[in-house]
Amino acid sequence: MEFSIRAAAPEKAKTGCLVLGIYKAGSASAPKLTRAAQAADRAAGGRLREVLAHGDLSAKAGATLLLHKVHGLAAERVLLVGLGEQKEFGETAFRDTVRGAAGALKGLGAKDALLYLADLRVAGRNAAWKVRHAVLGLREAFYRFEQLKTQKKSPLPALAAVALAAQSEPVTLQARAALREAAATADGVDLARTLGNLPPNICTPGYLAEEARKLARQFKLGLEVLERRDMEKLGMGALLAVARGSHQPPKLIVLRYSGGAKKQKPLVLVGKGITFDTGGISLKPAGEMDEMKFDMSGAGSVLGTLRALAGMKAPVNVIGVVPACENMPGGAATRPGDVVTTLSGQTVEILNTDAEGRLILCDALTYAERFQPDAVVDIATLTGACVIALGHVATGLFANDEKLAGELRAAGDDAWDRVWPMPLWEDYQEQLRSNFADMANIGGRPAGSVTAACYLSRFAKKLRWAHLDVAGTAWKSGRDKGSTGRPVPLLVRFVLRHAGR
Ligand code: BES
Ligand code: MN
Ligand code: ZN
């Protein structure tokens, strides 16, 4: 889908579908038309008000009503979109409105559309924010994953070009830049979603490495893939312990985007890339185990974020580090009770082979030290406990640096891909004690997401580091089962804001 910014008179615009906003009526009064809707209504001799008087447009933000060939308007169709109460038209209503419009547009034969939404006033948000959220909301709604179905559900939506009207605001350079940023971000989100949705027999560690190679070729990124023998030489005993039970060879993918100044220290993003998590010898129960194909979502978000940043030619230096392997039971698999030596030199007693994410991440974090990073952020579907704590709304945020935590929180709010801070207090560390090694890889049931983060913090002492537990936010279960692409929008915003954009 192509996006553009257009300054046009709504009544004169030749478009497949003109999208106009309508605020909810106050008590006993008529619905309130936005400025663009008023202009169109005037040209149409009051037809829009007349239709609205019938009460067919529900008052909810995102409700829609489609009209064809309105006399006096150049557009083929008019889609009226409910905005809810004008005084409550904030971030949530704006996003609901975009989603509602997108849902209606999907079912139309219109090849192009002109939307008067990003020109509406949203308290505290500028034109760039509205453009970004309009583009990302539309792209999210139009995403499909049908490559493995022989019978496609329904024909592809016809909509190929979307123009966002800049009516009350001038067509600023800022809005144009926001458009480019959002389209590239959406490409990154799509990539993360598709990698997450691919089944574990296709999306293997080797597949992730190949995907990184494709990105490297397409966007001229630096790429290095460490093989099992390289990890053995380095001494990545924890990562290797997880890979032992699988026939799929592990990969450590290092993908480098250098768009910034040479002397600028890089940000490093580390993504958990467990392409399937059976639990290993500490086998998971059968119910919903298929969802553990999403256990590489952190990895997918790192590749997606790099794709986004490279696609928009962002002036930043970012390195993606993806430890990828499969967690399987098998004759050679790691046993509960095994003690391994990590790349850092610290020893770990693996009391539960299902706490494998932290084992591959700890070696990747130590490996990240060599890039002398400005900061390191890891992204991982790390604990079921985080889902219990924060549900499917907020990503868990842990950090050893307050400023970094603040930046991630602000970026999450901006991208509406939100995180919530969790403690990393010393008091929790004692849950990780082991009688036989420097530490255990589990800390018992209480505060499971916190002790997982505490474990990681022991490998991040030399780093400005944050950990995002996306176990509750990276995918949806149930009827709408599928990858969400989170937290790509957050990560892109974070990197750009960190660079002063
Ligand atoms: N990938 C899982 C975490 C997970 C579980 C994410 C459910 C989303 C939904 C992780 O590897 C895991 O198995 N964690 C264990 C840790 C426990 C053994 C300490 C968990 O959360 O149960
Ligand atoms: Mn696990
Ligand atoms: Zn896992």
Characterise this structure:
The chain is of the alpha/beta class. It has helices at residues 35-43, 47-53, 91-106, 127-142, 173-197, 205-219, 228-234, 237-243, 297-311, 357-368, 384-390, 402-415, 448-457, 488-498; strands at 2-6, 17-23, 32-33, 64-68, 77-84, 112-115, 161-165, 222-226, 251-258, 267-271, 273-277, 317-327, 338-341, 347-350, 375-380, 395-399, 419-421, 439-440, 465-469, 475-476, 482-483. The strands form four sheets. Strands 8, 9, 10, 11, 12, 15, 16, 17 and 19 form a nine-stranded mixed beta sheet that branches. Strands 1, 2, 3, 4, 5, 6 and 7 form a seven-stranded mixed beta sheet that branches. The two termini are 25 Å apart. The site of ligand BES has 16 residues, from helix 11.
**Strand portion, in percent?**
15-25%
The chain-level mean pLDDT equals 97
What is the overall silhouette?
elongated
Global structural class: alpha/beta
Tally of strands: 21
What integer value in Å does the Rg equal? 25 Å
N- to C-terminal distance:
25 Å
Q: List all distinct small molecules, including ions and cofactors, that are bound in this structure.
A: ligand BES, manganese (II) ion, zinc ion
Q: Quaternary arrangement of the chains shown?
A: single chain
Helix content: 25-40%
In short:
By secondary structure, this protein is an alpha/beta fold. It has helices spanning 35-43, 47-53, 91-106, 127-142, 173-197, 205-219, 228-234, 237-243, 297-311, 357-368, 384-390, 402-415, 448-457, 488-498; strands at 2-6, 17-23, 32-33, 64-68, 77-84, 112-115, 161-165, 222-226, 251-258, 267-271, 273-277, 317-327, 338-341, 347-350, 375-380, 395-399, 419-421, 439-440, 465-469, 475-476, 482-483. It contains 14 helices and 21 strands.
